[in-house]
């Protein structure tokens, strides 16, 4: 058996699950993280594949001793920082107000 | 002996005394912190999760301290110093991996779990089999990782203190093990977290200092640094291009891809990282933790590039041979000596001692986190929930966790001493491969797939675990690898024994998809619908934090 919870808590979860705000929260969350995960994985794998199989492209020198491989690698840092920052902004403005409201309702309902 | 030799020997001795004093300082500082933190450890939530009282920023530093291991600090800079650009893949994979943790795992896990990885899965699965599987996987991943750090510690500390005998290495491993048991038994999660925070600050300060000194030598011109490194390496431009290490054959290229996949998917399945999300009060703070961790870890891995190429460019003479002999592990410490003024100078001695002490603190913080995570899973999942069926008192549970920390720490010492011939980078890569193959599929399916059930979870955990470890067992790492030029044996097993049939050293490219596939197959072949009823609850709880542990 899974972890037991009280009947009252169970009802509160069921009710929230049927709320339109919850459907909206889920849509907003998944709408961001799923495409973004696919995007950064493809971008990262592209880098690994290029390192392996595209030597002419990666070894091209851009300026001085800086080649495409180094810039591509550094760009992975830039995109990682960028996506993290974007998600922080997005979640704080779009997700948190909805989640906070639903949680407050829940806590009132089960008397926590 | 000439006067000069005597002088050199004397300065060598005083350098080692300096290094030893800084090591002692690290020990005194961390032991003091542990005692201080232990005063407020009373409940199970205190012991396992630091009372969930850490702020996001504190936890971000602790995550950095938990994650940036000696294998990263010494191993990556060493790999870059020896084989150039290819070492950079580790830095990138280890960082990008944090996006998986940020977007898909951290907040949801904080809201829906309690103390261990298994708590999250057990929420809607059959408790006993799932906790058993998750506990086994937790202990296996942590032991591989632990062995890597302890074997590395033995080799490193002995070298840095200039006592390169087998006995000295064994004493080092035992000392590191005893300290780690002490932190975990006495300090619990609070003590361990503070040790990790202190270590992260020391590590960031140390690497930043050396990086700035290296870049200053080249007038902050990265291109000059790279050019000098390429010339000094004797390999020219190829040193700055991908493929020097992994580009030799079609097989080694696929190995590189396999490693890249394991690195990026492993992080979010590492149990000692997952439990860190429980140490903050809310999911928002868990998010803040990961954002800080990404900032710290990203900055750190950018600096490994400077350290690695810096070591290739600036370390010369005997020290350069020493880097090669250590498999690259001494690149950062010897670079510190070089930028401080070189061997025999006061500046060189101080920086060498400083960076060595940072490496030592790094090892201690990581092994403590691993031991705590394993002990928590044994006590909370196996003892309290399976054996005692949830009837154990909190006091009883925490006492069991402390005993488990003793046993696991002792086992790690006992395994590390005969395991000193194991390759450190291989052990870390294996831990990541197991985490990505066994833990990540189960966690993601559980959070995102309604139909997922107990059989699917068990198949993906055991299937991923067995296939990752099994494929490595039948790989050239374990048997049948010889150096094509010298004919020397490069495998774990003695020369002449060859039962390898899996050509890759990194199993991820096979075992990770297999873990996901088995999770799906186990689920759809089972008629178990029980877990679907709880999915709505899990969704609400994980996304809103309603009813989350406080």
Automatic annotation (TrEMBL), chain A:
<keyword id="KW-0812">Transmembrane</keyword>
<protein>
    <submittedName>
        <fullName>DUF485 domain-containing protein</fullName>
    </submittedName>
</protein>
<keyword id="KW-1133">Transmembrane helix</keyword>
<feature type="transmembrane region" description="Helical">
    <location>
        <begin position="66"/>
        <end position="88"/>
    </location>
</feature>
<dbReference type="InterPro" id="IPR007436">
    <property type="entry name" value="DUF485"/>
</dbReference>
<keyword id="KW-0472">Membrane</keyword>
<feature type="transmembrane region" description="Helical">
    <location>
        <begin position="32"/>
        <end position="54"/>
    </location>
</feature>
<dbReference type="Pfam" id="PF04341">
    <property type="entry name" value="DUF485"/>
</dbReference>
Automatic annotation (TrEMBL), chain B:
<feature type="transmembrane region" description="Helical">
    <location>
        <begin position="457"/>
        <end position="479"/>
    </location>
</feature>
<dbReference type="GO" id="GO:0005886">
    <property type="term" value="C:plasma membrane"/>
</dbReference>
<keyword id="KW-1003">Cell membrane</keyword>
<protein>
    <submittedName>
        <fullName>Cation acetate symporter</fullName>
    </submittedName>
</protein>
<keyword id="KW-0812">Transmembrane</keyword>
<keyword id="KW-0813">Transport</keyword>
<dbReference type="InterPro" id="IPR001734">
    <property type="entry name" value="Na/solute_symporter"/>
</dbReference>
<feature type="transmembrane region" description="Helical">
    <location>
        <begin position="256"/>
        <end position="278"/>
    </location>
</feature>
<feature type="transmembrane region" description="Helical">
    <location>
        <begin position="197"/>
        <end position="216"/>
    </location>
</feature>
<dbReference type="InterPro" id="IPR050277">
    <property type="entry name" value="Sodium:Solute_Symporter"/>
</dbReference>
<comment type="similarity">
    <text>Belongs to the sodium:solute symporter (SSF) (TC 2.A.21) family.</text>
</comment>
<feature type="transmembrane region" description="Helical">
    <location>
        <begin position="133"/>
        <end position="161"/>
    </location>
</feature>
<feature type="transmembrane region" description="Helical">
    <location>
        <begin position="499"/>
        <end position="521"/>
    </location>
</feature>
<dbReference type="Pfam" id="PF00474">
    <property type="entry name" value="SSF"/>
</dbReference>
<feature type="transmembrane region" description="Helical">
    <location>
        <begin position="290"/>
        <end position="315"/>
    </location>
</feature>
<feature type="transmembrane region" description="Helical">
    <location>
        <begin position="20"/>
        <end position="38"/>
    </location>
</feature>
<dbReference type="GO" id="GO:0015293">
    <property type="term" value="F:symporter activity"/>
</dbReference>
<dbReference type="InterPro" id="IPR038377">
    <property type="entry name" value="Na/Glc_symporter_sf"/>
</dbReference>
<feature type="transmembrane region" description="Helical">
    <location>
        <begin position="424"/>
        <end position="445"/>
    </location>
</feature>
<keyword id="KW-1133">Transmembrane helix</keyword>
<keyword id="KW-0472">Membrane</keyword>
<dbReference type="GO" id="GO:0015123">
    <property type="term" value="F:acetate transmembrane transporter activity"/>
</dbReference>
